[in-house]
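Hi there. Long-time user, first ticket. I'm pasting a complex I've been working with (about 328 residues overall). I'd like to know whether the download I got is complete or cut off, because the file seemed smaller than I expected. Thanks.
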Amino acid sequence: MNQYILQTALAIMLFPTIDCQANTGFSVQFPPDNSFVENEQISIVLNLEKQAVDGIQVITGENVPTEISVRPDSSNACFGVTLNKGMNTVNLLGLKQGKVVVREEVKIFFRSALFPKFRDPPADFNRYFFHLTNNEKSCAGCHRMEPTLSSLRPGKPEESPCYDCHTKKFINNTFIHNPAAQGTCFACHEVLQGERKYTTPKPDEKVCYPCHNSQVKEWKSKKIMHGPTAVGQCTLCHNPHGSERPALLRMQTTDLCINCHEDKASGAHVIAGFFGKGHPVRGVKNPFNPDREFTCAGCHNPHAGNTQNLLNHDNSNMAVYCTHCHKK
Ligand code: HEC
Ligand code: HEC
Ligand code: HEC
Ligand code: HEC
Ligand code: HEC
Ligand code: HEC
Ligand code: HEC
Ligand code: HEC
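Hi, the file is complete. Here it is re-exported in full:
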């Protein structure tokens, strides 16, 4: 990054190194301690004292510790950390020639609306929004913070003004949502100046509608809409950027459903009045799509339908119902 070298050279010329008496090593600039976020990935930005450390070890809960090397003349260290749902204590150990010389920690809560356990951060934790004018100022020396019109549709993803810091959104998943892979982040994130820059309209449906209007229109024309789809909360179930699973799902489908329908987890409701303890709800093939696992969605439409219970097949005659998949 030529710009970076230039900036650092400038910084060194303008602000010659001061000999520090009490060498604390580094301080955590972002994220603020005792804050909460709703994303799995966050970035840590440290302010370094010159030559104080040559490496940082990062320990987050049970995750495998990672080590980041620090360039000798750097004033900042920036790196990403993966959080676990709920409370995370990120331990940052400053290393000098292999020895720990300084230690800092940041507490950060990863809130997830899907899990009752992880829904409520401690009362004294604040929501962390990064893209505020004052925060951005401290990065502008080395990173491009003001997108231009032409960067709205980058020729290559790497040219996006978001790529430096949010690389994982572009490349990290098995299934990447088409507009994210293209780097057209602005298809969904509005460019706003100042407060709450880059937020997306709520409910999510508004964001999805321009490109998925045929689907959404069709669902709205059905007799019954599924609760969360009806209120437009698409990203409860879908990750708008990418996922390890087909259909950009946040979790394996059955696990996803039983977050809100725990009492259906065994599949017992399917065969009530028939026989056995439960119906398979995972781990077998979907008879209509052998490439996919058979899950709750094998019988229920997650968006909308014309039958009570959003069934994919009419069940007014239960004996006939079973034969859609169980040939006699
Ligand atoms: C002194 C220059 C400098 C400043 C100031 C700076 N950065 Fe960086 N940042 C870099 C460089 C250089 C990289 C490329 C990664 C590397 O090689 O360390 C980077 C990479 C990053 C990354 C990607 C890290 C990863 O591992 O994925 C993030 C996120 C980031 N910076 C955020 C910030 C934020 C937020 C600020 C402002 C609070 C900031 N940076 C300020 C120089 C800087
Ligand atoms: C200098 C690094 C940097 C750049 C460049 C950057 N971001 Fe961020 N962004 C961050 C950090 C740091 C956060 C806080 C969450 C985290 O750590 O990932 C964040 C958070 C966000 C959020 C969540 C809301 C918020 O304000 O915290 C959105 C949305 C977002 N960025 C969108 C974008 C988009 C779109 C672009 C490109 C135009 C972009 N960002 C460019 C560093 C950056
Ligand atoms: C299809 C629409 C869409 C596209 C394209 C998109 N986003 Fe998002 N993004 C969203 C929505 C919606 C949210 C809010 C999610 C929520 O409320 O759970 C979000 C949240 C975020 C966040 C904060 C939460 C998190 O998951 O980290 C960041 C950072 C972010 N987007 C960056 C980006 C970047 C960078 C790009 C371009 C590669 C991008 N987004 C492309 C819809 C999109
Ligand atoms: C800028 C256009 C655009 C926006 C906005 C957009 N999408 Fe998409 N989406 C696409 C494209 C293009 C595809 C790939 C189409 C295909 O393969 O059929 C896609 C595919 C998907 C898929 C995967 C389909 C599959 O069968 O694997 C899901 C799920 C999805 N989008 C959900 C959403 C959600 C939820 C939102 C709103 C948060 C959204 N999309 C907003 C363009 C968009
Ligand atoms: C309750 C969870 C849930 C909600 C809420 C939800 N979806 Fe889905 N969606 C799914 C599941 C599960 C699949 C995969 C279905 C399958 O495997 O047959 C899917 C599939 C999709 C697909 C792929 C093709 C298709 O038509 O089936 C698109 C596009 C999509 N959803 C968009 C959306 C949009 C837009 C919204 C919001 C209006 C939304 N979804 C709300 C769970 C959900
Ligand atoms: C083999 C097909 C099948 C599978 C798999 C299946 N269901 Fe059902 N589900 C049904 C049928 C049939 C009914 C209607 C039962 C009735 O009328 O009593 C139903 C009813 C329901 C209802 C509404 C009834 C109520 O009591 O509120 C919910 C919610 C539900 N299922 C959720 C799930 C979830 C979650 C899963 C996955 C863990 C799942 N189902 C798996 C067939 C299935
Ligand atoms: C975020 C919570 C949430 C998730 C996740 C969720 N549901 Fe639901 N579901 C609801 C709500 C809310 C209702 C409406 C409850 C009511 O009206 O009593 C509902 C209703 C239903 C019904 C009954 C529909 C009717 O009115 O006849 C079925 C069937 C169902 N869900 C299946 C599923 C399946 C299958 C999944 C996974 C793909 C799923 N749900 C995921 C919240 C959720
Ligand atoms: C949408 C498809 C579908 C429908 C409808 C359906 N099933 Fe199934 N069922 C399956 C699949 C897939 C399996 C797993 C098949 C396998 O093991 O090869 C299964 C397995 C079973 C099993 C376990 C068999 C075993 O060997 O473990 C029973 C019992 C069962 N179903 C009963 C029923 C009954 C009763 C109904 C009607 C109320 C019904 N199913 C409706 C798809 C369905």
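A couple of notes from our side: The pocket of heme C (ligand 6) is lined by residues 254, 257-258, 261, 264-265, 267, 269-270, 279, 281, 296, 298-300, 309, 311, 315 (CB under 6 Å). Residues 1-22 have pLDDT under 50 and may be disordered.
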